[in-house]
Write a structure and sequence with these properties.
mainly alpha, 97 residues, 2 strands
Length: 97
């Protein structure tokens, strides 16, 4: 199954990741920002986004696999792409429906 091109983590994902970093004693408020322009033709306005230094990539992978997938993915896909729900147990620790 291939996800639609319009599927992307929303702004709340970045906020939750920032909270995850804070719990580890890292201050993401000190990271630089940039103007993020959406190029998908959606007409969404440019937003000021946090630029996470590459040394936090392992932390993001930890957050994504240990927090977002098991705790947030079901609700996210339920609203946006419910066809993927039967496949989530294969990539998460969620029980089968």
């Amino acid at each position: 199954m291939v996800l639609p091109d319009r599927m992307m983590p929303d702004i709340s994902t970045g906020r939750m990741f920032s909270d995850f970093l804070r719990q580890k004693g890292i201050d993401p408020d000190s990271f630089p920002h940039y103007e993020h322009e959406f190029t998908d033709g959606s007409g969404r306005p440019t937003v000021r986004a946090r630029l996470y230094p590459v040394e936090y990539l392992a932390d993001f992978r930890e957050y994504f696999n240990e927090v977002w997938l098991p705790e947030k993915s079901k609700e996210y896909f339920k609203e946006r792409f419910p066809k993927v729900l039967p496949f989530l147990p294969r990539i998460t620790l969620l029980p089968s429906p």
